[in-house]
Amino acid sequence: QTVGGHEAQPHSHPYMAYLKIAELGGCGGFLVAPDWVMSAAHCMGNITVILGAHNIQEPEKTQQVRGVLKYHEHPEYDPNTMENDIMLLQASSSVTLNDYIQPIPLPKSGRDLPTGTKCMIAGWGLIDEDRATNKLFETKVSIYSRRKCALFYPHLDSGMICAGSFHELKDSSQGDSGGPLVCNEVAQGIVSFGYNSPPGVYTRISNYLLWIKKVMKK
């Protein structure tokens, strides 16, 4: 889960998707259109998508489950450097949008987010090293400057953005991989790596707008 996070108000993040992955366990993801889910490329596997969930271990009436019709991993994803860690999944059929399931907007331009921008991450991963949770948790983080983040991660590139909390360990941990970094109600990042010690590194969605447009037009 999110270390230092708290349980989210049920269904307060209606764009959240849980990706059940045969080989890996699970990842986060998020709905960007009725039949499209975005996640991290490192979450690639045999995926079933669950939307409208709060407790992923319960068969909640609000849940809608979809298979994946097509996997679009970024063609230049590099698992060694984690560059271009972004993937689009086309669902087997559109979900029915309602109070529990809604897409989240993507950035409109490629501008960098100002340092200190307040954002939020949510996920179903580990709360701490050994205690897993089935319910959606959330935590607040702030955007780090590129310069400060490069001190932690020298190979930072324009497709990455950093966020964390400045005073305590409140970063996303294992289970949130692929979930969104949400700033002002817009999905600005995808949980990518560095989640064991803040700051965390996120795929910078605004760097990929042309690729996203191209894939979703196919």
TrEMBL record:
Gene3D superfamilies in the record: Trypsin-like serine proteases
Gene Ontology MF terms in the entry? serine-type endopeptidase activity
Q: Which InterPro entries match?
A: Peptidase_S1_PA, Peptidase_S1_PA_chymotrypsin, Peptidase_S1A, Trypsin_dom, TRYPSIN_HIS, TRYPSIN_SER
Alphabetized, the UniProt keywords read: Disulfide bond, Hydrolase, Protease, Serine protease
* SUPFAM superfamilies named in the record: Trypsin-like serine proteases (SSF50494)
Any Pfam family matching the protein:
Trypsin
Ranges for domain Peptidase S1 come to 2-217
According to its UniProt entry, one GO biological process term is:
proteolysis
Q: Which family does it belong to?
A: Belongs to the peptidase S1 family. CLIP subfamily.
Which protein is depicted? Answer: CATG protein
* Organism (species): Rhabdornis inornatus
